[in-house]
Amino acid sequence: MYKTPFLDLPALSSAAGEVTLPGSKSISNRVLLLAALCQGTTVVRDLLDSDDTRVMLQALRQLGCGVLVEGTSVTVSGLGGRLAHSQAIEFFMGNAGTVMRPLTAALAVLGGDFILKGVPRMHERPIGDLVDALRALGCRIDYLGQEGYPPLRIGTPQIRIDAPIPVRGDVSSQFLTALLMALPLAAGQQDITIEVVGELISKPYIDITLNLLQRFGIEVRREAWSRFTIAAGCRYQSPGEIHVEADASSASYFIALGALSAGPGMRVLGVGADSIQGDIRFVEAAQAMGAEVESGPNWLHIRRGAWPLRGLTLNGNHIPDAAMTLAIMALYADAPTTLTDIGSWRVKETDRIAAMATECRKLGATVEEGPDWIRVHPLPTGQWRRASIHTYDDHRVAMCFSLAALNPDGVMVRIEDPACVAKTFPDYFETLFEVARPLDVPVICIDGPTASGKGTLASRVAAALGYHYLDSGALYRVTAHAAVQAGLALDAANEKNIAELARQLPVRFEGDRIWLADLDVTDEIRSEAGGMRASLVSALPAVREALVDLQHSFARLPGLVADGRDMGTVIFPASPLKVYLTASAETRAQRRHAQVLQRGQAADYSALLADLQARDARDIQRSAAPLRAAADALDLDNTGLSIDDSVNQLLAWWEERLQR
Prior knowledge:
Elements: E1 6-9, E2 12-15, E3 17-20, H1 25-37, E4 41-45, H2 51-63, E5 66-70, E6 73-77, E7 89-92, H3 97-110, E8 114-117, H4 128-137, E9 141-143, E10 152-154, E11 165-168, H5 173-182, E12 192-197, H6 203-215, E13 220-223, E14 227-230, E15 241-243, H7 248-260, E16 266-269, H8 282-289, E17 292-296, E18 299-303, E19 313-315, H9 323-329, E20 337-340, H10 352-363, E21 367-370, E22 373-376, E23 387-389, H11 395-402, E24 413-416, H12 428-435, E25 436-438, E26 443-447, H13 454-465, E27 468-471, H14 472-485, H15 495-503, E28 507-510, E29 513-516, E30 519-520, H16 522-525, H17 528-538, H18 541-552, E31 560-564, H19 567-571, E32 577-582, H20 585-598, H21 605-621, E33 634-637, H22 643-659
Parallel strand pairs: 3-16, 4-15, 7-8, 11-12, 19-20, 23-24, 26-31, 26-32, 27-31, 32-33
Antiparallel strand pairs: 1-24, 2-25, 4-6, 5-6, 8-10, 9-10, 12-14, 13-14, 16-18, 17-18, 20-22, 21-22, 28-29, 29-30
Helix pairs in contact: 1-2, 1-3, 1-6, 3-5, 4-5, 5-6, 9-11, 13-22, 14-17, 15-18, 20-21
């Protein structure tokens, strides 16, 4: 997961391949709570691992449930409809509506002393209609802040079921879902009836709730979408084991990728035409816009059909989350696209109508909006603008606007706060990059003499940008290490054998550690001896040639920062930013001296200085890719600079390049 302040998405030419989606958030959190309310143990398979599910799991632990997490499987030991203890508990719900609403209802019926609160945005999301319905049942709930909004305090109820329980249905379907999940706990000798006041929105999410209730032993009679009856005497029963479908809302981004990309298309695994999730009907909307879709019991295959896409007018009430993706697909259409009956967008993680309109305009689009509708006009070739997309701490805004990187003008799209996708799809960008095909991968090259601080600077810049990092010197060090382990002398006589070894080098970088196959060789290769050996093998032309392809393979989305002595001159000559980093030999020797002493080793400054000067001369004079600055490199002498100064200077240069 990218935790950088922003993530720059290079322009994409297309996307193709296969993706396996994470579990559905809506199903995951419903199943976890239902398992907690049962007697006995439930094993939940393929559970989504995200911010929201972690919030629910923590709440269940606080309530006294046994929770055992093993990969994507979670075993929940249920409460049997009663709490294990009576002490006061304070819950932090983050911005998880699928936890706040159902847990509020369940705890209000069970009774106790509870406080439920969340992030500031959660305290702006209405819950008054649910509280009113629960109070009508005899539950005790107090507002601790603004009337109608969290945080809440829950006390001990005096349940009375002497009339149907009314609840508004036109703000959020989660209010009805919360009641449907909580009221079986109060089922006694008479039926419990819920009456929906007004038009029920997001009906497919109620279908999910009813389907899961049935699997946990609760039958609900539905009269149209206005009256729901829970039978007297019903009890939650564990199904023993239950599987979570992949998230149909998350599928929408890859369905869109298939519709937008020429080529073989996208194959999406984990969800298919038989899904119980309403957002699977996004497929129909994508087809109406021109996508060609095949589907099976647990898969979808999407290809581009009509191009440009066809603009449409659609009531988005039945796919409230996935419909956001249509607003981005509309930019690639032949006519405006209007989405109606989406008032629920206003009370989601952010005001999504306002967010989508504002950010689409940044890209150059014309957008109109109303209280419960949005109209997005196509964005013609030549009119796309580079934009920094504010994501409002809303995972779906971030994922939607990643699709703008497929724009025909080749402009980069910046996604602010990319970590917000952790709410439902922590590895979204990594998954996107596995199937996306960029016009070009941006590479920043930092070359310079030994001990100039290239590695520290490059790794810091890579971390700041969320880019991959290549320490080319480490490749030579690992090659030398592997050759010594194989009994090869580091000289021209063994050049061919060392080159063959380098071609098959099973090296990988994990944070600040370097692995050769299953061995951590970081300390060995970073020693002074490791550096000297690297200098010897780097002078062998055949070894350098063998490592070229390996170095090129590190240039992957979203970008690369590479440091070495010939990154900008030989390996990545087309790099848009090349920096030649240097410092005086005395400064470099002092830094190296301090590093060696820090490792608890003996060090002689004069000897280190002499060695650095000898290495400089050797690197400058070698016949294969001698050390020199690329003609278009920017010089950065860091003799008197801190590492922070150097990082800030390089990032400023990079931002200048992006603005061109």
